[in-house]
Design brief:
The structure holds 2 protein chains of 2 kinds. Chain A is mostly beta strands. Chain A contains no helices and 11 strands. Classes of the chains: A mainly beta, B mainly beta.
Chain lengths: 116, 110
């Protein structure tokens, strides 16, 4: 049973299209994240949700919109895809205990997005 | 200049060698994570620490809060340890965000 699962693993699409990446965790965590890893393997936070509430919203284009229907799911929608959006996107989750975000992170396997 | 810096960027070792990867940061932190990214791309959290030392199998992570420095040690290294190791810090100036180092590519040869 995969703890944090994201789909699809690979996504190849044309510029201008709209696409979604789904993420689900079965760990009972209350905090979920989206990270972007660029071609140099550098990871950067995009969004974080705690109990379905947005708590981190980095400076990303508003073409990227996260949606959390419940605590176990955090999906990422990307509109009008651009070449520069090509990267690996990782979903992660953790438990926010006593208001401290200092718990171990569990990552999904990543989604390789290629925009042509 | 990144607020979280790792060294070395690349490290090649022979099987059995003791390995140290370093991470330094510029401001106070509330926690520091060590992550491992396998050649297949998956990321695994190895340690989360805010003080002292943690050990899991052949892996040891230490942190010195005063010196703003953490190290990840691998004893009796093995080719299956080959991966990218990433440190990430929750900086006091960045709220709940994690700031990532650029990673250390470790290759252990048989």
């Amino acid at each position: 049973d995969t703890a944090v699962s994201q789909t699809p693993k690979y996504l190849v699409t044309q510029m201008g299209n709209d696409k979604s990446i789904k993420c689900e965790q079965n760990l009972g965590h209350d905090t979920m994240y989206w990270y972007k890893q660029d071609s140099k393997k550098f990871l950067k936070i995009m969004f974080s949700y705690n109990n379905k509430e947005l708590i981190i919203n980095e400076t990303v284009p508003n073409r990227f919109s996260p949606k959390s229907p419940d605590k176990a799911h955090l999906n990422l929608h990307i509109n009008s895809l651009e070449l520069g959006d090509s990267a690996v996107y990782f979903c992660a989750s953790s438990h926010f205990s006593s208001g401290r975000l200092n718990e171990k992170l569990f990552f999904g396997s990543g989604t390789q997005l290629s925009v042509l | 200049k990144n607020e979280v810096e790792q060294s070395p960027q690349n490290l090649t070792a022979q099987e059995g060698e003791f390995i140290t990867i370093n991470c330094s940061y510029s401001v106070g932190i509330s926690a520091l994570h060590w992550l491992q990214q396998h050649p297949g791309g998956g990321i695994v959290s190895l340690f989360m620490l805010s003080s002292g030392k943690k050990k899991h199998g052949r892996l040891i992570a230490t942190i010195n809060i005063q010196e703003k420095h953490s190290s990840l040690h691998i004893t009796a290294s093995h080719p299956r340890d080959s991966a990218v190791y990433i440190c990430a810090a929750r900086l006091e100036t960045s709220g709940s965000r994690l700031t990532f180092g650029e990673g250390t590519q470790l290759t252990v040869n048989p």
